[in-house]
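Final report, closing paragraph on structural work. Over the funding period we assembled a curated collection of sequence-structure pairs, and we close with a single example.
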Amino acid sequence: MKSKTLYSTGLFLLCLFTVIHVSAQDTIKSLPPVIVKATTTKVPGRIWKGFSTYFNNAEIPMWYRLNKDYLVKFMIYDEQNRALFSKKGRLIYHISYGYEKSLPDNIKGQVKENYPGHGITRAIKVVEAGREIWVINLEDAEALIIVRVEDGELEEVQIIKKTT
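Its predicted structure, as stored:
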């Protein structure tokens, strides 16, 4: 029994060391995570009114107080959404997390023309201060590509080569 316990402990430590050693050799650098510290909260009527004006078909809204503003997470059909409202009920920004079918035809065509053979895996729309920006994730057998489209201008943000 004692040798089984020692064997299990040794195997666990070996696995742990391997995981730590392998993860320490990763060469991909990423930004630190953004942590939103907020709690669910009651929402004043003027903010509900602003929310209902913009998103009358929203489902399951969950509200959070974020400094002096109000963050709402909700669903519209099968897409996750986030919106931030000021304390006066003004929309500050809206982010919609969609897929290829969420893209307008002109943007989808532009992306497919510039990246033939790549599949669109995610399409994120950011609306802020009168600007509409699409962040699109593309993938093929060799790479993951992130592009940004604003006012008809396509910009390549990042290419991540896949390893074999």
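The chain has two domains: 36-93, 99-164. Residues 7 and 87 are 60 Å apart (CA to CA). We thank the funder for supporting this effort.
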